[in-house]
């Protein structure tokens, strides 16, 4: 492990706790992904940028896909946090707008689309995607939607995981098969359609 | 064109019209895709099975992806036709059930998922996907939804293309990122959620 004596790791106060080193690596990876995408993300480069040995990186993340997904999740976590103003309509619109911005205005959309794309023929990457990204995003959305159910704003019998597919899944659909654009009108229509229903006779 | 004398092409009544030959090729491709997927679909094999020269095949379809998408579209077109009973709820449920069955019970789901996957890094395939498959599926769904708008069953101000993302797009989301399964309960929930709305206070 030739790099453990480098400043980034020691900073004059001995070996840093693994959690702190790990968080540093994830921050580095997240910055690279959002700024430029995943094409030039390599273990070599992450080792150089973070001052952590490749051996350690491989111990924590068995593949580039796993490293990218973990870094990406942590990079977008604050931006994609669910507001809780008590108004589920306003909170869904705010969160979906933030999500749409990450997808269309940073390299995030391309990074995720390529990882989802590769995961169709790479079972290990598919597992990493679900474990390190999508299952946790589903859990967080589900929590906010269940709070709205307890507040009587969403009907109790609704399966909130289906709502995830009809809001965020609908955005992924336009990202992966770009027949139609992801616009602010689209985000608003998703929320209003689903909360109010589209039926002409209710 | 060494194969033009083969029985499949001539059948004793001279050169067949190009439309008929083309339809034969698409039928052959569709059968292979739904039965076994796209892994062993090659121009060589399609030429052999259909009795059409590779030169002709390449003239009509510039890539394996284009050939697969055109064959797939035609193979599923009858199954995915939109019923028009006059009841949009029943018709959407019937069509989405048929779609879910093709996706989960034939090789169709895997074929589409892999083509969508590859198209994230292959711009020509992405264009072929939209031109030969998704834009036309969107158009057909849009037509049925607009008929429902004219009948007063869907509100006139609803953008029917957003509905496409919230029904079929939601199914694609579960196919491409399989955190949750595509079940009959899921299909029913998609339609009821969207037609009736999920809000607790309407």
Automatic annotation (TrEMBL), chains A, B:
<dbReference type="Pfam" id="PF16859">
    <property type="entry name" value="TetR_C_11"/>
</dbReference>
<dbReference type="InterPro" id="IPR009057">
    <property type="entry name" value="Homeodomain-like_sf"/>
</dbReference>
<dbReference type="InterPro" id="IPR050109">
    <property type="entry name" value="HTH-type_TetR-like_transc_reg"/>
</dbReference>
<dbReference type="GO" id="GO:0003700">
    <property type="term" value="F:DNA-binding transcription factor activity"/>
</dbReference>
<keyword id="KW-0238">DNA-binding</keyword>
<dbReference type="InterPro" id="IPR011075">
    <property type="entry name" value="TetR_C"/>
</dbReference>
<keyword id="KW-0805">Transcription regulation</keyword>
<feature type="DNA-binding region" description="H-T-H motif">
    <location>
        <begin position="42"/>
        <end position="61"/>
    </location>
</feature>
<dbReference type="InterPro" id="IPR001647">
    <property type="entry name" value="HTH_TetR"/>
</dbReference>
<keyword id="KW-0804">Transcription</keyword>
<protein>
    <submittedName>
        <fullName>TetR family transcriptional regulator</fullName>
    </submittedName>
</protein>
<dbReference type="Pfam" id="PF00440">
    <property type="entry name" value="TetR_N"/>
</dbReference>
<dbReference type="InterPro" id="IPR036271">
    <property type="entry name" value="Tet_transcr_reg_TetR-rel_C_sf"/>
</dbReference>
<feature type="domain" description="HTH tetR-type">
    <location>
        <begin position="19"/>
        <end position="79"/>
    </location>
</feature>
<dbReference type="GO" id="GO:0000976">
    <property type="term" value="F:transcription cis-regulatory region binding"/>
</dbReference>
